[in-house]
Automatic annotation (TrEMBL):
<dbReference type="GO" id="GO:0008915">
    <property type="term" value="F:lipid-A-disaccharide synthase activity"/>
</dbReference>
<keyword id="KW-0328">Glycosyltransferase</keyword>
<keyword id="KW-0444">Lipid biosynthesis</keyword>
<comment type="similarity">
    <text>Belongs to the LpxB family.</text>
</comment>
<comment type="pathway">
    <text>Bacterial outer membrane biogenesis; LPS lipid A biosynthesis.</text>
</comment>
<comment type="function">
    <text>Condensation of UDP-2,3-diacylglucosamine and 2,3-diacylglucosamine-1-phosphate to form lipid A disaccharide, a precursor of lipid A, a phosphorylated glycolipid that anchors the lipopolysaccharide to the outer membrane of the cell.</text>
</comment>
<keyword id="KW-0441">Lipid A biosynthesis</keyword>
<keyword id="KW-0808">Transferase</keyword>
<dbReference type="Pfam" id="PF02684">
    <property type="entry name" value="LpxB"/>
</dbReference>
<dbReference type="InterPro" id="IPR003835">
    <property type="entry name" value="Glyco_trans_19"/>
</dbReference>
<keyword id="KW-0443">Lipid metabolism</keyword>
<protein>
    <recommendedName>
        <fullName>Lipid-A-disaccharide synthase</fullName>
        <ecNumber>2.4.1.182</ecNumber>
    </recommendedName>
</protein>
Length: 383
């Protein structure tokens, strides 16, 4: 029997994690399955042949991708041609909707099954995109229950698989183990600072985050700061910013280990993104912030249809954690919010209870459920 062929495209680190787990789950049942497309180191380790470096797809905002448009269009053409030649049983786009949905629609119109893993924020802004999504995908896999309801209302085949992080992270508190691993002393409050994984995110957020750390140290002199860096380039970028902004701040920059850093912390200050879900699952109070480029924000602010942008608040459907945008992202606003998160024990206990409820709702065996849907879509035996 011919080996199953699966095209798979991930554009950033979170997609690489999801893709690697999905490949692993499928190969557990079909060891000879072949995977080609675009992936990072984790997907490559699981046997995916990547046709280009995943970082070439990692862009942010509305205006910024325009600078890379010729290259992105070339990559999209290359992938369309490759999949038409290779003729996979299915092509899976993981997140990166502006890049992937165009490829999915092209292939679906030519008879190749398509599946999209991780819903675009179509429920939040540009809801008219649902018409294009319906024409582009045979099935949508969502991570969160509220997304599934939106697609059902619009007649798009959908399955909520939950989130793999909820399956991986224990409900038990991991602070002691994390502090031992990072050699963090007991008795000192710790703030984890996560300014994002992309260079553009770090450039927007690192200065106000360091200024907030300075503000917080004046209010709580024994506090320490941990900053995980996504890679060597981000570590150098962060170290340069710290050196330029504060020479005496007790900051330790750690390569990788963002989950361990958050588990070791008492409170987290972070860029909006999947890491806010990790902080929720680790039961850490947090402040979530984001800054766009000037023109990207002008566009974003007119299109948004939801009162929240951080995952904890979207999942709770109310203001569970503080979230800040643009000019609100400054030490004078963030500092007092972090201090309240640090020192209000009753608030912390209530927040942890809310986080645990959401954790249980999301722990559904995501990768196995996603593999089930993929195999059903291709009509695999015993799917």
């Amino acid at each position: 029997m011919t080996a199953m062929r699966i095209g798979i495209i991930a554009g950033e680190a979170s997609g690489d994690i999801l893709g690697a787990d999905l490949i692993r789950a499928i190969k557990h049942r079909y060891p000879d399955a072949q995977f080609e497309g675009v992936g990072g180191s984790l997907m490559i380790e699981q046997g995916c042949r990547s046709l280009c470096e995943m970082d070439r797809l990692s862009v942010m905002g509305f205006v910024e991708p325009l600078k890379r448009l010729p290259e992105l269009l070339r990559l999209r053409r290359l992938l369309k041609l490759h999949f038409m030649s290779w003729q996979p049983d299915i092509v899976i786009g993981i997140d990166s909707p502006d890049f992937n949905l165009n490829i999915e629609r092209f292939l679906r119109e030519r008879g190749i099954k398509t599946l999209h893993y991780v819903s675009p924020s179509v429920w939040a802004w540009r809801q008219g995109r649902i018409k294009n999504i319906a024409k582009s995908v045979d099935h949508m896999l969502t991570l969160f229950p509220f997304e599934e309801h939106f697609y059902q209302e619009h007649g798009v085949p959908v399955t909520c698989v939950g989130h793999p992080l909820a399956d991986q992270i224990s409900l038990d508190d991991q602070r002691a183990e994390a502090r031992a691993e990072l050699d963090v002393e007991d008795g000192h409050p710790v703030l984890a600072i996560l300014p994002g994984s992309r260079g553009g995110e770090v450039a927007q957020l690192i200065a106000p985050f360091i200024e907030t750390a300075q503000w917080l140290r004046r209010a709580q002199p024994n506090i320490e700061f941990l900053i995980p860096a996504a890679n060597i380039e981000r570590k150098q970028q962060i170290l340069q910013a710290v050196a330029a902004l504060s020479k005496d701040l007790p900051v330790r920059v750690v390569l990788g280990q963002s989950r361990t850093v958050m588990a070791a912390a008492d409170v987290v200050l972070m860029a909006s993104g999947t890491t806010s879900l990790e902080a929720l699952l680790l039961q850490r109070p947090m402040v979530v912030a984001y800054r766009f480029g000037k023109w990207s924000y002008k566009i974003f602010s007119r299109l948004i249809k939801t009162p929240f942008f951080s995952l904890p608040n979207l999942l709770a459907q109310r203001a569970l954690v503080p979230e800040l945008l643009q000019d609100e992202v400054c030490a004078e606003v963030i500092g007092p919010l972090l201090l309240e998160q640090l020192n209000n024990a009753n608030h912390r206990e209530t927040l942890i209870e809310e986080f645990q409820i959401i954790h249980r709702q999301l722990a559904r065996g995501a990768s196995e459920r996603a593999a089930d849907v993929v195999l059903q879509c291709v009509g695999a035996p015993n799917a």
